[in-house]
Amino acid sequence: MLSLSLTGLKLKNPLMLAAGIMGTTGGSLKRMAEGGAGAVVTKSIGVGPKSGHSNPSMVEVDCGYLNAMGLPNPSYKNFQGEIDMAKEGRVPVIASIFGAGADEFSEIAGSLRADAFELNVSCPHACGYGAQVGSDPNLVEEITKAVKSATNTPVWVKLTPNVTDIKSIGLAAQRGGADAVVAINTVRAMAIDIESGYPILGNKFGGLSGRAIKPVAIKCVYDLYETLDIPVIGVGGISDWKDAVEFIMAGAKAVQIGSAVGNNINIFNDISSCMQAFLKEKQWTMKDIYGMAHKK
Ligand code: SIN
User: What CATH architecture applies to the domain 4-52+69-190+208-294?
Assistant: First the structure.
């Protein structure tokens, strides 16, 4: 009832683990797959090992989480074993990758073996990476093109909401040959400790995830669905089945769940059973609700 084909990949349901949470080891990715995720996305992996920003790198705020991890990772040269172990979960494993430019992205995509690549051109707080390259449509097009030439696997491009017009970046990814876009990465944000007067995060500012950003993400997905010919994958603040349905109605072909996994490790199974009950009660199919908000 919930199964779908997404950029050539077969998914048992449209609910994926988002990049950045439970995605550093093959064991945790496999556990998410066994917990009902339709696919899993790794933590973002780069060319060389990187220790990331200094602590605190993640704090809970009223309406979600603020993080500035700084893309810590062991390098793609030390990561294939984790992807291979994640594959034991028997769902597609998507490698989230980042680089400073087209050469680094294509070096990784030409070497790692995964079911798809998700290009992180959207981390809001990593100097020289992420949104610093992903806010320029020309660079996004060039990077996407380079990765497409380096690999035969599907290429998804994860977009930043921290731009004036996300549609122009989505169009650039599409021109570069992207098979899908993923919207959105975190929203640039900060918090200050009033006892000391210092910013709380080691990096001073970071990216906001969780419930607060859901309406921002819904609007981005809605606009991208209207603008692009390729599928949009929705992410940002999904906490329960109603949020997932809302994203699909906005035009997301599938969704990713990040922050909420921290509170409920069974969230994928919980959401898929509630979604099935909802569709049954309404006598709707996934096809009926996909982009429904545009049909009114
Ligand atoms: C990080 O590792 O800094 C987070 C990645 C991201 O926001 O894309």
Answer: Alpha-Beta Barrel (3.20)
